[in-house]
Amino acid sequence: MGNEGDPLVGVGDEAETVDHLCEDEEEEVDIELLKGGALKIAAKVAEGLGGVDTSITLEYLVSGAYNHVWLLKYLPKTAADTNDANEQINKVVLRIPKESAQSLHPYQLRHEVACLQFLCENLPDIPAPRVLNWDDRTGHAFIAQEFIDGQRLSVVWSQLAEDQKATITWSIANVVAKLGETRFDFIGGLDPDSQAGPTIEAGKIFNGRAKFHSHDCYNIGPYSDSKDYILSCYDREIYYYSHADKDDILMDAFENVTVPEFIESLRLEKENVSRNAQLFQALNAEPRVLVHEDFHAGNMLVRDGYLVGIVDWEFSGVYPLSELLGAIQLIQVSSPYRSESTEEEEEEWDRRYRQDLEKIVRQRGWSEGNIKALLEGGLPDFQKARTVMFPDG
């Protein structure tokens, strides 16, 4: 989901800040128009955290795919009368959902809040940002989260010494092992009130799918087992192609088949999959764990040669263990910092990372079945169901 979440800016002193740029170069952002509403939210957040109203400053960082991201600075009341007040200014990352963006609101925001709260309470050793305040009401929605002083690993990788790379990679492998030891009795997203919620997936948003994210259209989750989940993925695509506006459907994919013909093929495929008892037995035998879903160097923060932050949990979720590693290569060096040898180095460190991970989970006493599920990756039928579906060929 690398392009689906917010870009990693404004999370460290060395991170990029963007005044008028956004991920979509065609989008123009009127900073001053946005700032009025953002200041009201910032004042609420600062007051709740014990800040002095007159000390509030707000810096626009970036327009992500789903959020406007601001850096809030404020002076705590306890420091207002001290001589070193300027050195005690607190920083908070303020993320405000974009009203123009197709998203799974309010589920998307509620899930991220619940996920970060779960990590803070149950896995405090994983360096995820703490949620300081939040609201999911339309027109008032935001997440205020801890500012982490660090640089993106994808940006500084080439500047790190060999021993620093090894230390960071080992730390990342430990994070994955800890995520692999979480346990849930459902497949889905998280919710601050009810624990389980709908899955938050890009496949539910792509090309107008977000408007059908409702139990009135298909089962959006949570799901009791893998069969429930997989069949609902087919129902999502069947409902979409049956009800979507023609302008939303990528008609270039339908040169050899009509949309009604494709819908019928999805129904037949769903029926065939539903009879695959061996598939569901294998999936249901795996523990269900918390999966980040966008786990790569661009979403990891380092400082002084150590891992200090893992961000962008927006599209995380609870899935079978075999989905934990995913298909994304861990080390991805940002383009301005690449050289002729970068790709080879990325592959080498990805191999070392997987070796570290295997060593760690064996030390932690994982069963051979769980180790195999982790390292060999997800089952094709499960992974296909999770993606947006198009006609073959």
From TrEMBL:
Keyword tags: Transferase
Protein name (record): Phosphotransferase enzyme family
Keyword Transferase belongs to the record: yes
Domain (Aminoglycoside phosphotransferase) ranges: 88-356
Sequence intervals crossing the membrane: none
Taxonomy, superkingdom: Eukaryota
Protein's organism: Aspergillus sclerotialis
Gene3D superfamilies: 3.90.1200.10
Pfam families for the chain: APH
GO molecular function terms listed in the Swiss-Prot or TrEMBL record: transferase activity
Family annotation (PANTHER family): AMINOGLYCOSIDE PHOSPHOTRANSFERASE DOMAIN-CONTAINING PROTEIN, AMINOGLYCOSIDE PHOSPHOTRANSFERASE-RELATED-RELATED
Lineage: Eukaryota, Fungi, Dikarya, Ascomycota, Pezizomycotina
